[in-house]
Recover the amino acids of this structure.
């Protein structure tokens, strides 16, 4: 077990639930339906990858390889970049602003998610 990954995953999952509730109850009157959908996408991927982080932490007990640890780090970075940039897009819109070129962080975060999943698979296949 990789205790740090499980702990961070659980905290990030709780944050995803909080943000999801905020989106469902607090944002509807503040943003357009399109922006709300962007926010919901951020929350959905945030939650999926928080669970993936917990799973990677649990798998580490059986597959204690470098790829599994690296996957956990990339899941965290992916959440920050992908979901974080979507949240920033929505919140900047509330105040009439824009995140400008930082919108490129969303697909970069998605690439981090993909690499993390591949590393998890490699870690399972390459058990030491």
């Amino acid at each position: 077990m990789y205790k740090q990954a499980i702990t961070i995953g659980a905290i990030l999952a709780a944050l995803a639930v909080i943000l999801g509730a905020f989106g469902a109850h607090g944002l509807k009157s503040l943003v357009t339906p399109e922006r709300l959908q962007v926010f919901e996408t951020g929350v959905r991927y945030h939650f999926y990858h928080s669970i993936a982080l917990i799973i990677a932490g649990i798998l580490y007990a059986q597959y204690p390889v470098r790829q599994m640890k690296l996957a956990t780090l990339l899941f965290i970075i992916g959440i920050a970049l992908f979901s974080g940039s979507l949240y920033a897009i929505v919140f900047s819109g509330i105040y009439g602003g824009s995140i400008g070129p930082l919108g490129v962080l969303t697909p970069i975060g998605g690439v981090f998610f993909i690499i993390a999943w591949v590393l998890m698979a490699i870690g399972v296949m390459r058990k030491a």
Notes: The longest helix spans residues 33-62. The chain is about 80% helix and 0% strand. The mean pLDDT is 93. The CA atoms of residues 84 and 104 lie 12 Å apart.
